[in-house]
Automatic annotation (TrEMBL):
Residues 13-83 form the HMA domain. It holds the Pfam family HMA. GO terms for molecular function: metal ion binding. InterPro entries: HMA_dom, HMA_dom_sf. This is HMA domain-containing protein.
C-alpha cells in the first residue's frame, strides 16, 4: 500500500520562550525537566534569569506531536508562566 503524497510530514521546530519566576539556581533545571517531558520535545536549553529578567528556554520539538501552546501550558502549570519571546 502506497502512502499518499498529501500525507503531512512532521517538521522539527524551535521556539524561544521567556519564562517568569526563573530567578533561582534551581529554577532552570526544573523548567528544563518540565519541558523535556512534553511528548515530541527533542531538546531544551534554559538560560537562568537574573533579578531583572525572565529565564529563556529554547525548545526544539516535533510539530506533529507538540505545539507552542502545550509547551507554554507545561511551564505555566509548573509555576513558571511562559510566553513566546519577541
Amino acid at each position: 500500500m502506497a502512502l499518499s503524497p498529501l500525507v503531512a510530514q512532521a517538521a522539527e521546530k524551535t521556539v524561544v520562550l521567556n519564562v517568569d519566576n526563573g530567578t533561582c539556581e534551581l529554577c532552570a533545571p526544573i523548567v528544563k525537566k518540565t519541558l523535556s517531558r512534553v511528548k515530541g520535545v527533542t531538546a531544551v536549553q534554559v538560560k537562568e534569569a537574573n533579578a531583572n529578567a525572565s529565564a529563556v528556554a529554547t525548545v526544539t520539538f516535533d510539530d506533529a506531536t507538540a505545539d507552542v501552546p502545550t509547551l507554554i501550558a507545561a511551564a505555566t502549570n509548573a509555576g513558571y508562566p511562559a510566553h513566546v519571546k519577541n
